[in-house]
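Per your request, structure below.
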């Protein structure tokens, strides 16, 4: 059980795989890792998501991995979840390797105290995507429907492994994948039919696309009941159906198309108790992420006065004068760290 102040809100470690001087981040001096973690800490974060496009946790030798773990502990930075990017477990060329990678990450994630491993079915950027101002504006990988049964089987396999540690698998919504629409995502997670598999309702991945989209409210209505981890970001979006023109750009959470004050409250009423990961593309991604984290905490603070997502009886509504949390929130925060 969390309070607004102890709810895990992680920074995506978006520093990249190279240091500022061009070194491989995996073999860079530990002082480089510390500097990047301190930048996050100084902006008020108490949690990170060390996504696999940053320090490659699976590939680190034991000594380097232990140094990473100890550094996070010393800085009091918890790791509620770890995300995997473009490593689809049904990639035709690399699926077996990617599956083994996620298995290894589950083991190392457990050592770091992670509760969730977030995966998707995205694959490597195409040359056109690499050249585009925003990669999502160029066509990318489209999942093969014939591989859907294999994808379900492999997610179930990962869920069994994660379940041995009491961990969950979250499936990130992303265009043209098996969880690329709200209906497809719900159908997919239902077909997997495992208690520790849910959805990452990253609707920001969809509203940024220059193509027709259902309303964000329609999409959230469908997927929020299955959410167990939440990559959260926002975009402005404009569209002209008569000419077929679209425009989108990344903005802070409170400034974009999605009304996250309403959507977060909706998620809490439905029983969402997972961690958030703030994500932003372009500009000062870390500074905007910190702004987004503060915004989420303010929304949580007001929402938890009247909404109890942890209610055992399913009744999420409480009196506005009742406490929203208490000492148990601190206990939960301690349990979710190391």
């Amino acid at each position: 059980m969390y309070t607004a102040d102890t709810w895990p809100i992680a920074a995506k470690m978006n520093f990249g795989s190279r240091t500022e001087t061009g070194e491989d981040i995996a073999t860079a001096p530990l002082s480089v890792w510390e500097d990047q973690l301190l930048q996050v800490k100084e902006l008020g974060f108490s949690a990170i998501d060390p996504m696999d496009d940053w320090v490659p946790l699976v590939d680190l030798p034991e000594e380097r991995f232990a140094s990473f773990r100890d550094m996070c502990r010393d800085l009091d930075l918890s790791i509620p979840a770890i995300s995997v990017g473009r490593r689809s477990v049904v990639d035709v060329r690399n699926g077996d390797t990617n599956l083994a990678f996620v298995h290894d990450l589950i083991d190392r994630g457990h050592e770091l105290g992670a509760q969730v491993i977030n995966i998707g079915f995205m694959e490597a950027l195409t040359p056109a995507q690499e050249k585009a101002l925003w990669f999502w504006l160029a066509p990318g990988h489209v999942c093969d429907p014939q591989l859907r049964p294999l994808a379900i089987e492999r997610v179930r396999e990962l869920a069994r492994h994660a379940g041995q540690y009491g961990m969950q698998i979250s499936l990130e919504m992303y265009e043209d994948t098996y969880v690329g629409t709200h209906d497809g995502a719900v159908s997919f997670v239902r077909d997997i039919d495992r208690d520790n598999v849910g959805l990452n309702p990253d609707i920001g991945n969809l509203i940024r696309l220059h193509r027709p989209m259902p309303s964000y409210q329609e999409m959230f209505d469908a997927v929020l009941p299955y959410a167990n981890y939440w990559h959260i970001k926002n975009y402005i979006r404009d569209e002209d159906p008569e000419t077929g023109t679209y425009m989108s750009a990344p903005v802070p959470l409170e400034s974009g198309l999605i009304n996250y004050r309403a959507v977060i409250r909706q998620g809490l009423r439905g029983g969402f108790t997972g961690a958030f990961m703030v994500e932003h593309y372009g500009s000062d991604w870390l500074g905007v992420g910190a702004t987004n984290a503060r915004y989420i905490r303010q929304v949580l603070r007001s929402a938890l006065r009247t909404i109890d997502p942890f209610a055992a009886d399913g009744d999420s509504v409480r009196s506005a004068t009742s406490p929203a949390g208490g000492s148990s929130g601190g206990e939960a925060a301690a349990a979710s760290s190391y």
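Confidence is low (pLDDT under 50) at residues 321-338.

Regards,
D.
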